[in-house]
Structure formats: C-alpha cells, structure tokens
Design a protein that fits this description.
Layout lengths: L2 E12 L2 E12 L3 E5 L6 H9 L6 E6 L2 E2 L2 H5 L1 E4 L11 H11 L4 H14 L15 H13 L5 E5 L7 H16 L3 E6 L2 H7 L2 E6 L2 E7 H7 L4 E6 L12 E7 L2 E6 L5 H11 L2 E6 L4 H8 L2
Parallel strand pairs: 3-8, 3-9, 6-7, 7-8
Antiparallel strand pairs: 1-2, 1-4, 4-5, 9-10, 11-13, 11-14, 12-13
Helix pairs in contact: 3-4
Bound molecules: adenosine-5'-triphosphate.
C-alpha cells in the first residue's frame, strides 16, 4: 500500500462552532477506508475539504506528497451527500457528460458509461431521467457518475445508505475492483456492521476529533481485552479457582473469562487440557461497534 492522501491537522469552524479539530489521517492505494462517526461528527465537512469544495481554516490536504492541485482534483471521484445528478437528464447522457467534464474523449466516456451501467445493472434504465428512478437506482447512478473517469481517489459520502443488500454487494464489488486496480477509496458510513465487513482501514471520528485510525485488524488487536472464550468437555466451573481468571460467563462446557494483567493464557489452556479435551480456546476480539463505543467515550 502507498499512502496517497494525507489530511493533516485540519481545523474548521462554522461561526463560533468548531466542527473539525486537528483532523489528521491518511488513505492508501488499493484499500477501502471507512470513515465512521455518528451524525454530525464531521465526516461530510472533512470530505468536502478533501475535495476542495470547502476550505479549511488551517491544516493541509496533500495528494501524493504535494498540495492538491486542480489537475489532481480532476482525477478524483466524489459522491456528495446531497447527491448531484440533474433530475431531468437521462442517466446515460448524464454519466457520459460527467465523464467528458473529467476530460474523457466522447468515445471513452460512452464506453465507460456502458460498462459501468452494465456492472451496476442499470443498463435498462440508461434512457430514463434520473427523477423517474427509484431511490436505490438513483444511488447506483450516482456511484456510476463518481466512477466514470476511473478516479485515482474515490470519496463517497454514505454510498450504501438506502441500498438493498443485493445492491450493497454489487456496489461493493465495483469498489473493490477499483481498489484492486490501484485506486484509493474513502467512504463514510454510520452502518458499523457494514463497514466492519467491507473495510481494510478505518478512521473513527467523534465531535470533530479523530479517535482512532488504522488497519481494521490492528485496531481490533489494539482494543482486544484480555478476554478469552473456552469450550471443554464437561463442566468448565473449575475456572473459578484458576489463578488470574475472572469468569464473565459460564454455561456448562462453555465459558468466557478475563485474565488479570501478567497472567498467561497458555497456563489456563494447559490447565484445561490436563482435565480433558479442549474444543475451543481463543481470544475474544471486539466488534467494530464495541471499539466505536469505547473510543467515542
Ligand atoms: N455549512 C454549515 N454551516 C453551519 N454548520 C454546519 C455546516 N455544515 C456542517 N455544519 C455542522 O458541522 C457539524 C458536522 O457536520 P457534518 O455534516 O460534517 O457531519 P457528518 O459526520 O457528515 O454527519 P451526518 O452523518 O449526519 O451526515 C454538524 O454539527 C453540522 O451541523
């Protein structure tokens, strides 16, 4: 992975209210980065600043190590929260038009539009005006619009909201494909279960402050409690008397326990094995929802 987008110490206020406070994070190529936060946390404001639609009061946004230029911005794809397709233009015409605005030749714009509409299963809707589409199909058309010029950076504000599960998978497959081809993909969401499943990297924001950022796997490691799950044959009640162990759940052969700092999980495992077969023994990893609640406290 190469880091391509760097947001550094960005501050932004609206009137007296500071909505971004020293926001810093980075986005790499070939990865899906999820930008997570509650309503009003500052995701849209940050994305607008990245795209240059809104200015920062201080701080910098750099692309491949240099301030974002107009040319670099041309190579970005953006799906804004307020969406932005013309209701009275047909889907096909519109996407071709946007491709042209981003510098594609007429032939390339048409060819990319056809391919994308096919991928997003919108081919049959190509001749319809946007206002006639269902909300889910409008959303797919927005995604096609953001992708038409093969952007190097894709910034998508809540791209999955309002999509049914099949459309989510479709859009996800297209985004993964773009990432595999070398694009950097940043998208906001407040659907934690979805983000947990989709993202390689995470940026968690609350009240305008970045609370945690990094690869999903690293964050999960970092926020892992010294908590374990064990399944044995017979009753696991003996764990009550095991040094360093605090039981949090006991259900016959199945138990969840915490270890006091310094206690060794392998000692507990050996103790269990000395009593009989062990069917499962593993650290309990927190879900993204659990990490989120912990870091936004
Ligand atoms: N143009 C503006 N003028 C005044 N306040 C604004 C403006 N834009 C955003 N805000 C405020 O900034 C804060 C952050 O808003 P932002 O839209 O960035 O949050 P968000 O994380 O994207 O939330 P959501 O998930 O609800 O879209 C909110 O309190 C919002 O009311």
């Amino acid at each position: 992975m190469t880091t391509v987008l760097n947001v550094e110490a960005v501050n932004r206020s609206f009137g007296e209210r500071q909505v971004l406070k020293d926001v810093s994070f980075s986005v790499g190529t070939g990865r899906l980065t999820g930008f997570v936060g509650a309503n009003g946390a500052g995701k849209t404001t940050t994305m607008r600043i990245v795209l240059g639609v809104l200015g920062a009061d201080s701080g910098t946004v750099s692309w491949r190590g240099a301030p974002v230029t107009r040319a670099a911005r041309q190579s970005f794809g953006y799906m804004p929260e307020e969406r932005g397709l013309y209701p009275k233009m047909t889907v096909g015409e519109q996407i071709v038009y946007l491709g042209r605005l981003h510098g594609l030749s007429a032939a390339d714009a048409r060819q990319r539009t056809t391919a994308l509409l096919e991928r997003l299963e919108l081919t049959e809707r190509a001749g319809e005006t946007v206002e006639k589409l269902s909300l889910g199909n409008q959303q797919r058309a927005q995604i096609a619009a953001a992708l038409v010029h093969d952007p190097e950076l894709l910034v998508l504000d809540e791209p999955f909201s309002g999509l049914d599960p099949i459309a989510v998978e479709k859009v996800l497959a297209v985004l993964r494909e773009r990432a595999r081809a070398g694009a950097a993909v940043l998208f906001s969401s407040h659907q934690l279960e979805l983000v947990e499943r989709l993202c390689d990297d995470l940026v968690i924001i609350a009240d305008g402050t970045i609370r945690a950022a990094g690869p999903r796997a690293t964050l999960r490691e970092q926020y892992t409690l010294p908590r374990y799950r064990i399944e044995v044959d017979g009753d696991a009640g003996w764990l009550r008397d095991e040094p360093g162990v605090t039981l949090t759940e006991l259900d016959g052969a199945h138990a969840v326990f915490d270890l006091t700092p310094g206690a060794d999980d392998q000692t507990v495992l050996r103790s269990a094995l000395a009593r009989g077969p062990v069917r499962a023994f593993a650290p309990v990893r927190p879900t993204l929802a659990e990490i989120f609640h912990e870091v936004i406290q």
